[in-house]
Each structure stands twice: as structure tokens, then as C-alpha cells.
Design brief:
With 128 residues, the protein is an all-beta fold. Helix content is 0%, strand content 45%. The chain has one domain: Jelly Rolls (Sandwich).
Amino acid sequence: METGSLIEKGDLWVFMELFGLKGVKHHCGLSRRALLPLFGFGVQVHYTEFTNDTKEHAHPVATEVYIVLEAGADARIKVDGVEKPVKAWQVMGIKPGCMHQGLGHMKVLILILPFQHEHDEVLPEKKS
């Protein structure tokens, strides 16, 4: 997995460029990830372009903070089964265990604390 374009690193700081990445296809849309924990930081940063084909999910361990940079007229987020409209420059906090799903078109900066491992994601079980 790509880790962000490292621009420069010091003993106590690091500069990375998210747009130096081609992006990773994710169930939330196209995601570019600056994996700061690889450099000793306790937060991960994603830039995600949400689309209409996202999947509802939760994180048992991680807290997420969404910073909405751009939002289409159809942008909304579903949290604990309730859809909320979203507009640019809103900030949303999502605690561990909260089922959530980005809906519509939006560009979001996501801060993830602590570092999110791949196993810290739960999709709802399919009902037969």
C-alpha cells in the first residue's frame, strides 16, 4: 500500500503530499492515505472522494473525524441508521462502534485515531 509522498522528514516532524498518490479504491470511494503512523504519529489521514456506491460500516477501535471539503447537493451521511445532510466545511466526529456511511458525492479529509488497521472495520452482516 502506498504511504503518501514523503516530501521531507525531521526528527520531530514529517511533510507528506496526499496528491502524490494514485489513490486506493475503497468501499467509500477513491482514497489517498498519508500513513503517518509509519513515522511515529498516532493519527492516520485519508483524503476520500465519496461516490454513490459506498458501504455502511463501523470501526470497533478507531475514532474518525470527517472534515468535509466539498459536498454535492446529494451529499449526506448515515449515522446509526439516520441520514443527515452534509455541506462543505462541516466537521463530524464518529466514535468506535457507530455504523456510518457516506452517501452522495463529497470530498472529505478523514482523521483516524488511533491508527486504523485493516481488521478494524466491520461491515453489517447480510440478511438472507
